[in-house]
Amino acid sequence: MSQRLTINQNTKPIYDIVYESDFSKLAEELEKFDIISKKLCIVTDSKVEGLYAAEVKNALEGHCKEVKVFAFPEGEKSKNLDTVKDIYTFLIENKFERKDMLIALGGGVVGDTTGFVAATYLRGVDFIQIPTTLLAQVDSSVGGKTGVDFDQYKNMVGAFYMPKLVYMNISVLNSLDDRQFYSGMAEVMKYGLIKNASFYEWIIENMYEIHDRNLDVLEDMVVKSCTYKKLVVEKDPTEKGERAILNFGHTIGHAIEKAKNFELLHGECVALGCVAAAFISWKRELLSKDEYYEIRDMFVPFNLPISVEDINPEEILQLTTSDKKMEGDHIKFILLKKVGKAVIDNTVTKEEILNGINEIYFSEEDWDE
Ligand code: GLY
After folding, report:
1. What is the residue with the minimal CA distance to atom 5 of ligand 1?
2. Which atom of ligand 1 lies closest to the CA of 143?
3. Which residue's CA lies nearest to atom 2 of ligand 1?
4. Which residues of 148-182 are buried (b: 16+ CB within 10 A; e: fewer)?
5. With the CA atoms of 143, 30, 96 and 160 taken in that order, what torsion angle do they form, in degrees rounded to the nearest 10?
6. CA of 238 to the centre of ligand 1 (A)
7. Residue 26: count of CB within 10 angstroms of its CB
8. Nearest-atom index, ligand 1, CA of 246
9. Rounded to the nearest 5°, which phi and psi values hold at 320?
10. Ligand 1 geometric centre to CA of 253 (Å)
């Protein structure tokens, strides 16, 4: 434990990601930002509040001017401008000033929403991320994407805004229920698929340790995942180009997430989206048939879905084209050339996308076969 990665921009260090096994180093890390003169607001959700808010508050009390806690109802349905307004109101009522600091304690919804508030409240206040889900640790807390959903559009309103620090307590991964944990595994597998075949092999070789939530292996896995993310976001922090490969599986995944009214978790939808995108890659002869089936079937031992019932493929197609990954009439689609190598493609047709959706759609007719 006690590892550290630094995210740089133009060779200038921007923020550190620290990996610990508890919250005991949090105050020491934050003292570097002169918190003795600052008020801190821990923003969290109703679930994480009960698990970690008191512990984090206690760890910080006495090291800063004051610590407040604001919690909103858990779940993707809270990721909207109403929650942003509630947080602004709390900050205004509690007289938070520009020099004060927000702490996002929770999963992706908490991190993205709090980050957006930090980017906009008083034209920007400092914030740090304390991600408490695997998904947030390996993906959403790193790279400075913040924002909320708007009507049916996911992550439609937001800002690139960097945290001052990402503090990861790896042991929190033990408190996740299985579904949440494996949802995060979809993003981990994504890094192997898009960036590094050896890491993909490593995940498979360490499958049993991962199932057992061996903390040393999980730390290794989280650090490796963040290292791949670091490589991408340092080169392209605002997604002008290469960063889009991180959206592998997300175009169709986001559409399913929305169509299913968030009944399925983000990572479950990403796994489905990865299968559909790998299918399209096979049909374009970028992947072989065997490679496609191996990629598809490897989600199964990680308890991730490779097919979905009760969807309308046409509706999913329609939702993919209202995604913010559109460039004019074209969708920026991520395909695989091989395990470990993703490519951005602007020529994928609606018909190909529909074929990909049909591949993962488990319909009543499939029962009869
Ligand atoms: N989650 C994708 C990205 O940060 O770009």
Report:
1. 246
2. 4
3. 246
4. bbeeeebbeebeebbbbbbbbbbbbbeebeeebbb
5. -10
6. 10
7. 22
8. 2
9. -65, -30
10. 14
- What atom of ligand 1 comes closest to residue 187's alpha carbon? 1
DSSP summary character for residue 308: B
pLDDT (average), residues 115-138: 98
Kindly report the CA angle at 264 between 186 and 267, in degrees rounded to 5?
15
Q: Of ligand 1's atoms, which has the minimum distance to the CA of residue 247? A: 2
Amino acid at 58: N
Helix segments in 78-133, DSSP class H: 81-93, 108-120
Cα 247 to averaged position of ligand 1 atoms, centre (Å): 6
Q: Could you report the per-residue pLDDT of 286-323, keeping only the tens digit for each?
A: 999 999 999 999 999 999 999 999 999 999 999 998 76
pTM for the model: 0.95
Amino acid code (one letter) for 40 = L
Indicate if the alpha-carbon torsion angle 178, 180, 183, 187 is positive or negative: negative
